[in-house]
Amino acid sequence: MFHIGFEGSAAIVDAKLQSRFGGLSSRGLAEEGLFKQAVCSALFSGSQEELEQVLLVFNQRTAHPIGSVEELKRTFGSFGIPEGVTKIVVI
Question: Count of domains in the chain?
């Protein structure tokens, strides 16, 4: 959820964000304004309901509402768990 990017088979993770917000639910992350992380969390859980909750919070806080979960995923560039990631590097 707190990845910055990927390098080969490694996910690069932001340690500060992870330690501060790692215990929050998808909705909790969205309420903190961490929408990309909230989308990633909901995708990781596999819950359509969580994605819809993130969409609801996003639409409550923006001047440009998004119409669907698919559009939300496109907006934040998160579509699922990448294949081939075998390790995590925390920085």
Answer: 1
17 — pLDDT class (breaks 50, 70, 90): very high
Q: Are 29 and 1 in contact (CB under 8 A)?
A: yes
Contact 6, 83 (CB under 8 A): no
Q: How far is CA 58 from CA 19, 26, 61, 69, in A?
A: 23, 12, 5, 11
Which amino acid belongs to residue 85? V
Question: For residue 47, what are its two tokens?
Answer: 């819950």
Residue 61: give the domain boundaries.
Answer: 3-90
Contact 37, 2 (CB under 8 A): yes
Instruction: Quote the pTM value.
Output: 0.87
| CA nearest neighbour of 76 among 24, 46, 34, 44 | 34
Flag whether pLDDT at 33 surpasses 90: yes
Kindly report the backbone phi and psi dihedral angles of residue 63, in degrees, each rounded to the nearest multiple of 5, phi listed first.
Answer: -85, -10
Task: Find tokens 């819809």 and name the residue.
Answer: 52
